[in-house]
Specification:
With 173 residues, the chain is mainly α. It has helices at residues 13-40, 45-71, 77-90, 103-130, 139-168.
Length: 173
C-alpha cells in the first residue's frame, strides 16, 4: 500500500489502481461504442456530429492510460479484454428489428454514450480531488479533461433530445 501524509504526499495507489482499471474498462467500452456508432451513421448529420466526440473519447482513454503510468498503476489486460468483448456482445441486443438499425437505435446509442461520459467525468472529478495529495496528478490537465467531459455531455444531451423528438414525434397519416 502506498500512502504518505496529506498535502504533497502520495495517495493510496492499491485501491486507486482498481478504480482506474475499472474506468479503463469502461473507457474501452465507450471508445468501441463511439467508433461503432460513428461508422454506423457514416455520412449522416448525426455521424458527423459524433465523429469529433468519438475522437475525444479515444484521446481521453489515452489520457487515462498516461495518468495510470504516472501513478505506477498497471492496466489489467483481462479487464480491458472483457470490456472489449462485452461491448461487442452488447451490439447483439434486440432493437425491435431483426435486421438493421431501428430508429430507436440512435437514441439508445446516444444515451449509452452519455452515461459513459458521465462516468468519465466522475472519474476526472475524483482525480481532481486527489491532485492536492499527489504531485503526479496534473491538476491543470485534469481540469481540462473534466471540462471537455462536461462539454461532451452537453453536446450528447442536445443530440439525444433532437433524435428523441424525431423518433417519437407522431406522424400524420
Amino acid at each position: 500500500m502506498t500512502t504518505q501524509a496529506r498535502h504533497g504526499g502520495r495517495i493510496r495507489t492499491d485501491l486507486l489502481g482498481v478504480y482506474l482499471n475499472d474506468h479503463l474498462a469502461g473507457s474501452t467500452i465507450g471508445c468501441e461504442r463511439a467508433q461503432y456508432t460513428v461508422r454506423a451513421l457514416h455520412g449522416s448529420p448525426l455521424g458527423r456530429a459524433l465523429a469529433p466526440i468519438a475522437a475525444e473519447i479515444a484521446e481521453d482513454r489515452r489520457s487515462l492510460l498516461d495518468i495510470m503510468r504516472r501513478l505506477g498503476v498497471s492496466s489489467h489486460r483481462y479487464k480491458v479484454g472483457a470490456a472489449w468483448a462485452s461491448e461487442k456482445a452488447g451490439r447483439l441486443k434486440t432493437n425491435g428489428r431483426l435486421v438493421g438499425r431501428s430508429p430507436l437505435s440512435n437514441v439508445l446509442e446516444l444515451e449509452f454514450l452519455r452515461l459513459g461520459v458521465e462516468g468519465k467525468a466522475a472519474g476526472w472529478r475524483l482525480l481532481l480531488q486527489l491532485a492536492d495529495d499527489d504531485g503526479r496528478l496534473d491538476r491543470h490537465n485534469l481540469e481540462e479533461l473534466f471540462e471537455r467531459a462536461q462539454r461532451q455531455l452537453r453536446t450528447l444531451e442536445e443530440l439525444r433530445l433532437q433524435e428523441s423528438r424525431q423518433v417519437f414525434r407522431a406522424v400524420d397519416r
